[in-house]
Write a structure and sequence with these properties.
The protein is α/β, with parallel strands linked by helices. The chain folds into two domains: 153 residues, HUPs (Rossmann fold), CATH 3.40.50; 179 residues, Alpha-Beta Complex (Argininosuccinate synthetase, chain A, domain 2). It is built from twelve helices and 14 strands. A five-stranded parallel beta sheet has the order 3-2-1-4-5, with helices on both faces.
């Protein structure tokens, strides 16, 4: 915990919601400090202008209110590098929340430097992963930065106490915040995450109303839709021949995937802090990108490189999940992954139907697929007799092991 006497100015990651509005006022009261607010547009689909108005009403100076559109940087510099790895945490989760935190932390630190702030602050609770992600990223970028985490300091440990504090300090509260929210939502251009309350019992199915970005697969169109995604060096660059910026491309895929019910996940994960939690994730565009990227890699990656990349992926995904985006080991793995993408260019056509994105075709000028070698018809490039020696050499150690085992049984 930072000493309040050392803190004169704080940069707060601010959404304008109940929690961060209370934190803003709490910082002003408890630390008697000037607050700078930072609100990032990562494609969460919310109107951000109210955040400015709320900050002004809370006494934040106009020059201390930062609202930034980071959608292109988010997709280009964070989502796309992760997609090159086909990253999945615990085999299923596409890391939509995890990958947004290092960018937010990066800007918090940069704004703190630009404004001469003594500390940064976030609204993550002491039970979750986000506190770890925000703070590890901040310390990696500025080892001397001070971090204030109100949820680990204050006694406002219930929704009732938060609302009472808000009312005592004339903080406007949306009507739906006066009762218990049915679940908590985090959203950005890559995904929507829903957790808590009605979702806390993993034995109970998630209510239909939890899903906000995707149609139920059974209600999706009865006619399949096809989409062609073009790649250059591992990154998607066009849809159906139309070149798009990274953020615009992901937004287009979100619309397509959401309409067909793609990218839904009901998942119980292992948090870095030690507990299990259940989340409902919707990653429609990400599901399409993952399927298409794996499709283009099937014909452009050598088997040795592809299999090694698959071996590295779980470790890479775990580093992102646990908040180590700026750690040297993640950067080392990224360098290896990026090197593998030199020839991962071409087009993949997906069929979208009732919640599934299936690869129908793929082609690339860099394809390693050789019809001449794989044909069932007569060919002039492969001598099938060569396979006999190949098998004999690979069987040698197995034969030696079998003979030793047989001799052991006779003793």
């Amino acid at each position: 915990m930072a000493s309040s006497s050392d803190i004169k100015k704080v940069v707060l990651a601010y959404s304008g919601g109940l929690d961060t509005s209370v934190i803003l006022k709490w910082l002003q009261v408890e630390y008697d400090c000037e607050v700078v607010t930072f609100t990032a547009d990562l494609g969460q689909g919310e109107e951000l202008a109210p955040a400015r108005e709320k900050a002004l009403r809370a006494g934040v100076k106009p020059e201390n209110i930062y609202i930034e559109d980071l959608r292109e940087e988010f997709v280009r510099d964070f989502v796309f590098p992760m997609m090159r790895a086909n990253a999945l945490y615990e085999g299923e989760y596409q890391l939509g929340t995890s990958i947004a935190r290092p960018l937010i932390s990066k800007r918090l630190v940069e704004i703190a430097r630009a404004t001469g702030a003594d500390a940064v602050a976030h609204g993550a609770t002491g039970k979750g992963n986000d506190q770890v992600r925000f703070e590890l990223s901040a310390y990696a970028l500025d080892p001397d930065i001070k971090v204030i985490a109100p949820w680990r300091e204050w006694d406002l440990n219930s929704r009732t106490k938060l609302i009472a504090f808000a009312e005592a300090h004339q903080i406007a509260i949306a009507k739906d915040k006066r009762g218990e929210a049915p679940f908590s939502v985090d959203a950005n251009l890559l995904h929507t995450s829903s957790e808590g309350k009605v979702l806390e019992d993993p034995a109970e199915p998630a209510p239909d109303y939890v899903y906000q970005r995707t149609a139920a697969p059974e209600d999706a169109p009865d006619k399949p839709e096809r989409v062609t995604i073009s790649f250059e060096k591992g990154d998607a660059v066009a849809i159906d021949g139309e070149r798009l910026t990274p953020a615009a491309l992901l937004a287009r895929l979100n619309d397509l995937g959401g309409r067909h019910g793609c990218g839904r996940l009901d998942f119980v994960e292992n948090r870095f802090v030690g507990m299990k939690s259940r989340g409902i994730y919707e990653t429609p565009g990400g599901a399409l990108l993952l399927a298409a990227h794996r499709g283009i890699e099937q014909i452009t990656l050598d088997s040795g490189a592809g299999h090694l990349k698959d071996d590295l992926m779980p470790r890479y995904a775990e580093l992102i999940y646990n908040g180590f985006w700026f750690a040297p080991e993640r950067e080392m793995l990224q360098a290896a992954i990026d090197a593998s993408q030199e020839f991962v260019s071409g087009e993949v056509t997906l069929k979208l139907y009732k919640g599934k994105a299936s690869v129908e075709s793929r082609n690339s000028p860099n394809s390693l697929y050789s019809a001449a070698h794989v044909t069932f018809e007569e060919d002039a490039v492969y001598d099938q007799k060569d396979a006999e020696g190949f098998i004999r050499l690979n069987a040698l150690r197995l034969k030696l092991l079998a003979r030793r085992a047989a001799a052991s049984r006779l003793k």
